[in-house]
Amino acid sequence: PLAMVEDEAPRPDPVGVAKALESHWVETPLGQVEVKLAVPAGERPVALALMVHGMSPAPEIIWEWGCIVDALRQRKTAVIYPNLHTCDATTPAGATPGAVASALESIIAWARGQVDGGAEAPLLVYGKSWGGARALELCLHLPAAAVAGLVLACPAPSKMEDRAARLAKWKAPVLLIWAKDDEVIPFAASESLLAELRARGPAVFVPVEAGGHSVARMAAASEALATKLVEWPDLALGPLAAGGLLSQLAAASPSAAGQDSGPEEQAKPPARAGAFDLSGMM
Predict the structure, then answer these.
(1) Which terminal residue of the chain has fewer beta carbons within 10 Å of its beta carbon, N or C?
(2) Which pTM was predicted?
């Protein structure tokens, strides 16, 4: 499904994309959770991407990561997309961080068994708002090497015990995105989190002028951001991975791989499939 905007190329309708995917009911220690699974057609995926939604039960919030699902599949990344509102124990309004992490761990294990080569495929996690806090907690809950990269979109604060100490030891690359017109979790909240992320390993910050508290609107407003979200598996597993070129530069100069993406990045066209857009990192 595509959403048409006058004078613009058609772009994916996130809710339509997600709802078109088959629903699976996955057993977790907390109960069954509805999960969508998007696999590259006829190809073995090079990575798995877990999407964690925000707090609201509105379909446009639950399924907003749908704006990049098809593009990720084209880059050979399988997408795991749970609806945590479908289980009472994982519903955002009342779920504990530990319960959500346990359920997500089971969902990841299930997805690995469903995908060709899933047992060996590296895992990336994307989380927005409430889901951003849960995504970060999941990364810190799992063994250090279990997650190859993390995307945080205007994340809510995490209240995980010993979070700061655990985060300081976790070295996987992180992409942080935020809209300057976000009225739910203000853009100013990005400053302290970004400093913390940069102090412990590779971190890329992509601020955008508009989009509010919505991944889909941010991606629609900035082609550069949409590109970065889709190419993140390539970047996290390549130049930003431990031992990669940009990771080495970050170790030598912490600001090098964590530099903000400036206005010049937004003027650039999206990278072609198979290429990296490295702007905003050097």
Answers:
(1) C
(2) 0.86
